[in-house]
């Protein structure tokens, strides 16, 4: 694409998704604000709600779905229009020969904790990650944990090709001083009892049954707390849905807006993340930004994110989770201390910093022809 300045294209087809979609939305908007003199091209899904409005972003729209055959014919053509193309997931365009930067969030498809993913899904991930390992493009990893796993699974990747750039929480997720608004939301949602919060997908590696088990034990000890689960249930995981609906203390709240999520973070007693694996763990940062204590697995990337602000447990030991929750729910001073530490920890991460470091990777890739 002829231009006095290189133009970076970004595959933003997952714009409306949770998880990776959140990553795309936040870093793209921060990138546009931090570098108003530069132009960035986005490949958005045709049915895109809330497209970006920044004047230095321009968009084209794709009908290709994620992980499909069609994208392998369409995306090389679209990527070829730019001086550099950023793919924010491992589904790289196989036949594209231009400069490319790829973000890898996790290797959960390969590790497959809990046996959730099918052999076909694992084979798909191994093929594309293996192809990525052979290419000489730069790779952005969202955590040191993911970088270490990439190097372990694909030892031919040169370590200097992988740049660790963490995600961040939007400044929107903060402690609300006006308690009237959250309390009105509590009444509207019938959340009269104190509650613990889970935010994420319902896939097996999220380890929700352990959390249900620990919650039942606490209830048996007389704790009145409920468990609010935010996220879209997976219809393929019918066994888990049965466990949740069969637990009288569990409430599925579905997918919620950022406004509602912030209210939930401000109302809950703690966020619990019992995952067996995580590439990053963005809800941990969002919760800490709101002053909510976080109880997280001592595994994968989660200690990188929660730091000294988190309360940790072995995700395969229900006694450990029950014990940590018991101590936190019994000790107001401990919760207050965790709240203060969490706010400080969340401030160590910034989408502005993520955008700047991502722009540095773009410059490096363009200069080195990677």
Describe what you observe in this structure:
With 370 residues, the chain is an alpha/beta fold. It has 2 domains: 8-168 and 350-368, Glycogen Phosphorylase B (Rossmann fold), CATH 3.40.50.2000; 180-346, Rossmann fold, CATH 3.40.50. The protein is built from 14 helices and 13 strands. It has helices at residues 20-34, 69-79, 108-111, 119-134, 144-153, 180-188, 208-220, 238-245, 258-267, 282-289, 302-306, 318-330, 332-346, 351-368, and strands spanning 8-11, 40-45, 57-62, 84-87, 100-104, 138-141, 162-164, 195-199, 226-230, 250-254, 270-273, 294-297, 311-313. The strands form 2 sheets. A 7-stranded parallel sheet has the order 3-2-1-4-5-6-7, with helices on both faces. A 6-stranded parallel sheet has the order 10-9-8-11-12-13, with helices on both faces. α6 crosses α9 (258-267), α7 (208-220) crosses α12 (318-330) and α10 crosses α13 (332-346). The longest helix is centred in the C-terminal third of the chain and has 18 residues, at 351-368.
């Amino acid at each position: 694409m002829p231009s006095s300045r290189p133009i970076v294209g970004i595959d933003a087809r997952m714009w409306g998704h949770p998880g990776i979609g959140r990553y795309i939305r936040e870093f793209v908007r921060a990138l546009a604000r931090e570098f108003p003199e530069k132009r960035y091209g986005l490949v958005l899904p045709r049915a895109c709600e809330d497209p970006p409005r920044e004047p230095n972003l321009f968009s084209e729209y794709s009908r290709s779905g994620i992980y499909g055959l069609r994208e392998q014919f369409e995306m090389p053509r679209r990527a070829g229009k730019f001086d550099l193309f950023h793919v924010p997931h491992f589904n790289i365009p196989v036949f594209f020969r231009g400069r490319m930067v790829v973000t890898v969030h996790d290797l959960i498809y390969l590790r497959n904790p809990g046996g959730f993913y099918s052999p076909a899904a694992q084979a798909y991930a191994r093929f594309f990650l293996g192809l990525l390992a052979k290419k000489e493009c730069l790779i952005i990893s969202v955590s040191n944990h993911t970088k270490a796993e990439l190097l372990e699974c694909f030892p031919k990747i040169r370590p200097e090709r992988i740049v660790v750039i963490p995600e961040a929480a939007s400044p929107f997720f903060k402690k609300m001083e006006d308690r009237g608004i959250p309390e009105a939301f509590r009444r509207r949602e019938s959340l009269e009892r104190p509650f613990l919060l889970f935010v994420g997908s319902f896939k097996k590696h999220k380890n929700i049954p352990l959390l249900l088990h620990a919650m039942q034990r606490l209830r048996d000890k007389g704790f009145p707390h409920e468990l609010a689960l935010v996220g879209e249930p997976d219809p393929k995981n019918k066994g888990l849905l049965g466990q949740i609906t069969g637990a009288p203390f569990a409430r599925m709240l579905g997918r919620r807006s950022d406004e509602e999520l912030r209210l939930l973070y401000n109302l809950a007693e703690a966020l619990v993340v019992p995952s067996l694996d995580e590439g990053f763990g963005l809800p941990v940062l969002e919760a800490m930004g709101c002053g909510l204590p976080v109880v997280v697995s001592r595994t994968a990337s989660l200690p990188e994110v929660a730091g000294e602000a988190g309360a940790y447990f072995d995700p395969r030991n229900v006694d450990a989770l029950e014990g940590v929750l018991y101590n936190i729910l019994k000790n107001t001073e401990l919760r207050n201390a965790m709240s203060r530490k969490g706010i400080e920890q969340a401030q160590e991460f910034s989408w502005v910093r993520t955008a700047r470091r991502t722009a540095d990777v773009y410059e490096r890739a363009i200069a080195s022809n990677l």
